[in-house]
Amino acid sequence: MSALRIAASGRPLAGDVRVPGDKSLGHRMLLFGALADGITVVRGFSGGADVCATLDAIQRLGATARLDGDTVQITGAGLELGTGRDVRLDCANSGTTMRLGMGLVAGAPGQCVLDGDDSLRRRPMERVAEPLRAMGARVETSGGRPPVRVAGGGLAGVAWTLPVASAQVKSAILLAGVRARGTTTVREPGASRDHTERLLAHMGARLTAADGVVTLAGGQRLRGADVALPGDPSSAAFLVVAALLVPGSTLRVRDVGLNPTRTGALGILRRMGADIATERVRDEAGEPRGDLVVRASSLRGTTVGPEEVPGAIDELPVLAVAAACADGETRITGAAELRVKESDRLAALEQLRMLGVEVQASDDGLVIGGRAGRPLRAGRVRASGDHRIAMAFAVAGLCADGGVEIADPECVAVSYPSFFTDLAGLGAVVEDA
Taking the model in full, what pTM does it have? Predict the structure, then answer.
């Protein structure tokens, strides 16, 4: 598909939908399952390109994995995973596969090269390499970027303070710490996703996590687990905003992850006036989950500060679209990380200007003038190979007079392969451009 046009049909969006299994949890379950003793079963596996890169990586490192529909069964290699191997891991477009993979392979005697596509080769990796070197791994980057060469094994625990909150860096250090001598401690200046801590505990590790400090004793053996992944809250956010913006819409997104470190976008939207309820809330495998019930709402502009960014980092592109359709101005600051995602997302979001939106990007954020009561203009945008930019502008198309054409829309397969099918099933117009 070279381009798609997404537009409103003149009818509300309505229905029940399930989004793919949580991508962050999926990566971690594969990695921990490979490192565990016994069998791990991951249900609700999304099949997106990112998590499939991790699935391939653990098999190259010596775990056995079998994919059947949306279920993956992993026979772990235990703490011996990757020992004595000389492997090359193709991380494709997945920064999570590479950064967490660096921590995983650092723990075993062996040689590993981690590489990826052109987009991934532009992303910074020294933030992970530095603490791993402090633990005793030999890590070489290519000018701070991939490909990355790791010679692992013989690690010692480390006390490491992160300069900025980062779930990926924290998780890489903890993955290395599982096989290190002594104790590993990670301190963060603010909250980041805590899936790693929750899953380590679920798989039998003893650790403490409180007040931004995680402490893990090395040498603990993990046990296999059976986990049904909740729906990915970052993927759900695009449908949530779509339902909020199309008049008369009512949408239920079933069985979505509600981990409090992942619901920052919901809090921001509610502050903007969004009608979003949670129902059937429960815990499984240490992770809260439930249904989101969304009704179309009139939104107002807001301010998103640096302290809110880590909890909404993946949803900021679609929050920018919500802001474009809100009443008043929205300011986002402290989001410099968006410059080094799959694309420069701040630059990509400046394409909102082509749709008639007043938008100004800075080094670390955006100022967006809302157009409440006025439709966006029709336009054609490029996703630049970035799944979240493609999905964000698809939502914008529902608010544009004549819709929005998206070049290279196939990149949504990274995280949400059925996104356009689901959007059409809810009542949107999705057609070849």
Answer: 0.94
Cα 116 from Cα 26, distance rounded (Å)? 19
Predicted pLDDT of residue 2: 83
Q: What size, in residues, is the chain?
A: 433
Q: From the centroid of its chain, how far is CA 2?
A: 25
**Token code pair at residue 342:** 């799959």
CATH of 23-219, one of 3.40.50.620, 3.65.10.10, 3.20.20.70, 1.10.10.10: 3.65.10.10
Q: Tokens representing 362?
A: 């800075």
- Give residue-wise pLDDT tens across range 291-341: 999 999 999 999 999 999 999 999 999 999 999 999 999 999 999 999 999
Give the containing element (helix H, strand E) for 406.
Answer: strand 400-407
Among all residues, which ones are annotated catalytic? Answer: 314
The whole-angstrom separation of Cα 55 and Cα 32 is 12
3-21+230-432 CATH, one of 3.30.70.920, 3.40.50.1100, 3.65.10.10, 3.40.50.720? 3.65.10.10
How far is residue 32 from each of residues 187, 198, 218, 223, measured CA to CA in Å? 21, 12, 14, 9
Calculate the CA 184 to chain-centre distance.
Answer: 25
Distances (CA, A) of 243 to 272, 375, 407: 14, 16, 23
Specify the pLDDT at position 291.
Answer: 98
Q: Structural domain boundaries of the chain?
A: 3-21+230-432, 23-219
Encode pLDDT of 113-146 as tens digits: 999 999 999 999 999 999 999 999 999 999 999 9
Segments of the chain scoring below 50 in pLDDT: none
User: Token match 């494709």: residue?
Assistant: 92
